[in-house]
Specification:
By secondary structure, the chain is α+β, with helices and mostly antiparallel strands. It has one domain. It contains 2 helices and 6 strands. The chain has a 6-stranded antiparallel β-sheet, with helices on one face. The longest helix has 15 residues. It is globular, with a radius of gyration of 13 Å. The relative contact order is 0.20. This is MmcQ/YjbR family DNA-binding protein. It comes from Flagellimonas hymeniacidonis.
Length: about 100
């Protein structure tokens, strides 16, 4: 069920934007823009977004966590993960991540 929501978002974006494609990030299913990952589905049943290091988290009324895939390293700068509990926010965050990567 969790993965189905991710697939739905990915398919929608791939249909609407020719430069958006399916791909992988750390062996997980991902969404790419011009071969650069901006969102993916983590093994923890969360969706992870590259929103950028200057992205303000204060505008959200739900929890975004810094994405930290490594036990001994710092979190990845500008990457945030959101639990399945907030799946209704995933599409909006995916669009924000897409806009952010287009600017860089």
């Amino acid at each position: 069920m969790e993965f189905e929501k991710f697939k739905e978002i990915r398919e929608l974006l791939c249909l609407k934007h020719p430069e958006v494609t399916e791909g992988k990030m750390m062996s997980s299913p991902a969404i790419h823009y011009n071969n650069k990952v901006f969102a993916f589905f983590s093994r923890k049943y969360r969706m992870v977004f590259k929103l950028g290091k200057d992205h303000s988290l204060e505008e959200y009324d739900f929890e975004l966590s810094e994405f930290s895939p490594f036990k001994t390293k710092k979190p990845l700068v500008g990457w945030y993960e959101v639990d399945f509990e907030y799946r209704d926010k995933w599409e909006t965050l995916t669009l924000k991540a897409l806009e952010s990567i287009k600017l860089n």
